[in-house]
Design brief:
alpha/beta
Length: about 325
């Protein structure tokens, strides 16, 4: 697939995974990883004092041990703004990519925060609106961010996407699925950052993805937004006669705060198996990383780093020794 390459493109450390991290997942020593790399003809990269490997190299390690990458379209949706939707989508995409997964991230929020996080600047290139309007092929809208990691960026052109869908009377059940059909087989995961709105676009995304992740925080406005988001998903499911798979991702958790404990119990009791076991701790480094166009994995001591790692491992289905669980 031919993709655009941003003129600002550099390859930061966030796109490499540590040799020790690969060893931990595989259940072997770091020295064993080094020996295996030599046998496979894989080159490590030095980042400071760490030996690291690219996404493609990591993929080779895991596939050599019979690991099969899952295939999922995952969207992040939440009607309340400021729910950590973008930062969660971004850090998950980066970590899955570090583990060797082939990722297409799609920014469908007109504010373009996910686009900005990846350091991509949209000038005259097409965004998803132009694809939907028939003005560009979807492959023309794809920017290559790094090895095994691509992005369809967003800008304010996408603010009229919903009007376009309604005026053209697109089939909501198939609109997103049809748009992605040309590129679906090129990726393990397609991760979509949605706008915080009740919209035809989000309905079509919900009907086309394998899993919706709803980030939710420990406050009453997030709880209200969560309830409304779930009500909408269940309405869509009933109207279109199609089950919609969704999970809650509890973020901004602080074990020192009574309110964090209160909402953990509340969400766990009310939504039970819908609540993802991994909890993302409140951590200023998550916001700082986005501001610096970095991921949480550029901050070795950040508490949330381990949380996003566990989230990615769970989605990949890693067993203790790196095979499929």
């Amino acid at each position: 697939m031919e993709t655009q390459t941003s003129s600002q493109h550099k390859l930061p450390g966030r796109y490499f995974i540590g040799q020790n991290e690969i060893a931990e997942v595989l259940g072997i020593t770091s020295n064993a990883v080094s020996i295996a790399a030599s046998k496979l003809g894989l080159q490590s990269q030095r980042l400071g004092k760490r030996a690291t490997f690219s996404s493609a190299a990591a993929r080779t390690f895991f596939e050599e041990r019979a690991f099969k990458y899952p295939r999922e379209i995952i969207s992040f949706q939440m009607l309340k703004g400021g729910s950590t939707k973008t930062s969660s989508a971004f850090n998950l995409a980066v970590r899955l990519n570090q583990y060797g997964a082939r990722i297409l991230a799609i920014d469908l929020d007109m504010q373009g925060n996910l686009t900005d996080a990846f350091g991509i600047e949209v000038t005259n290139g097409p965004v998803f609106y132009h694809v939907a309007a028939g003005e560009a092929d979807i492959k023309e809208a794809i920017h290559k961010v790094s090895e095994n990691l691509d992005l369809i960026p967003s800008d304010f052109e996408n603010s009229t996407l919903d009007f376009l869908i309604t005026s053209k009377r697109f089939d909501l059940r198939r609109f997103i699925a049809n748009a992605l059909a040309k590129v679906r087989d090129s990726y393990d995961f397609i991760i979509i950052d949605c706008n915080p709105a009740l919209s035809s676009l989000n309905i079509s995304i919900a009907l086309s993805c394998d899993r919706i992740v709803i980030p939710v925080n420990p406050d009453k406005f997030a709880a209200k937004g969560l309830k409304k988001t779930i009500e909408e998903l269940e309405r869509v499911s009933k109207e279109f006669g199609q089950p919609i798979n969704y999970n809650l991702l509890y973020t901004l958790y602080d074990g020192r705060e009574a309110i964090s404990q209160k909402y953990l119990i509340e969400y766990g009791t009310e939504y039970k198996d819908r609540l993802i076991p991994t909890i993302i701790k409140r951590n200023a480094d998550v916001k700082n990383a986005l501001d610096q166009k970095k991921s949480i994995f550029d901050f070795p001591k950040a508490p949330a780093r381990e949380d996003f790692d566990l989230l990615a491992r769970g989605i990949l289905g890693f067993s203790p020794k790196g095979g499929n669980s």
